[in-house]
Amino acid sequence: MTTRISGPAEGAVSEKRVIGNVLRGSIGNLVEWYDWYAYAAFTTYFAKSFFPTTDTTAAFLGTAAVFAVGFLMRPLGGWMLGRFADRFGRRSALVLSVTLMAGGSLLIAVTPSYHTIGLAAPILLLVARLIQGLSVGGEYSTSATYLSEVATPGKRGFYSSFQYVTLYGGQLLALGLQLILQGLLTEQQLTSWGWRIAFGVGTVAALSVMWLRRGMDESESYTREAETTAGERGTLRALAKYPKEIALVVGLTLGGTVAFYTFATYSQKFLENTAHIPRRTVTIILFAAILLAAILQPLAGKLSDRIGRRPLLLFFGIAGTLLTVPIMTVMGSTRNPVGAFFLVLAGLVVVAGYTSINAIVKAELFPTKIRAIGVGLPYALTVAIFGGTAELIAQALKSAGHESVFFWYVAGCVLVSLIVYGTMRETSKTSELEER
Fold first, then answer.
1. CA-CA distance, 117 to 127, in Å (whole number)?
2. Nearest of 380, 363, 423 to residue 143 by alpha carbon
3. d(CA 326, CA 123)
4. Residues 163/359, Cβ–Cβ less than 8 Å
5. Angle between helices 56-88 and 90-110 (to 10 degrees)
6. 146-162: per-residue pLDDT in tens?
7. DSSP structural state of residue 235
8. What CA–CA distance (Å, rounded) separates 236 from 232?
């Protein structure tokens, strides 16, 4: 089944207008992902506040479990907010998602520790994370849809790559604030109360973006489609007519999400807890590697506009399958911060073959009337099952004394996606040919 992305004709919308829409669509995504990753970045400081134990690995395991459970709400968010975006517009859904994120961050910021309110502390942490999971599940599908629809034909790979620029940017903001707080506060102050600053900042930023997004332009593709498909927009019945595309989203995502969360988030705990590199040094390593990875995204996205999406996906699939185990094995034994930096960067360069174009590839599979729910629901389900559990599986295997098994697990997941990349059609050519 072939699908075209409906969008403005060449020359109908000025490049300046397109850039403005992309920027407005991206800045909220930046704040959303800052709030999401602040949890991962500051886990090492607040873990024992919610899970009292003298065993660092056990405390990390508790917060990793909550991190994973938060992912379970992402399919619900992908369905609810994806349906909302398809029925009532991309702009309204983006405003709603960032409002939910503000609420989740505020709850984490003000929740007392276990020593103050007992079991209520981890329960409130869990509730906050569930709210954030709902928000992120809807944010991904709606922002991916919005960026693909407002982008100039022939440049969709480039403009859509900014979703992961801002995703990495959110993580950079979280790590950057962590570096600042590490310089201003003592280790004891950060562990006691300083980590709350990160979630307070996230709350204020999300509320600011909520106000900003209210003035966004609606996607012209959605506006035109809304006039003719009112009864079909965003329904599961309409989505069920695209089983092959749904399966493709799952296959596209599986290896990419596991590899992404391994190198972009779990590597922070891995370098600290396995390689025994000092915490602040690890933060600097991650910050530098992710900064370069963010810069790489639009370059890879632009390349996909020239040579197609499949070559980049095949690069990720082949390199990820062959190199994950060697990279992680050496990373776990290195004590050299420079070497650790290049190993993390190598992993992120490999993952860029997926991250830079995964949003546009999925958007190109579905028609406008179900694009947000089509991208969001199967993607969020896959991320919840595989991406959200990656760190939990890694920590559990480490605790059981079989940490290296996790490396093979990641490589195996990438191999499954490689099979999908090798058999799927080239989505960019189909879309551009139909528009001509």
1. 15
2. 363
3. 39
4. yes
5. 150
6. 888 877 777 888 888 88
7. -
8. 9
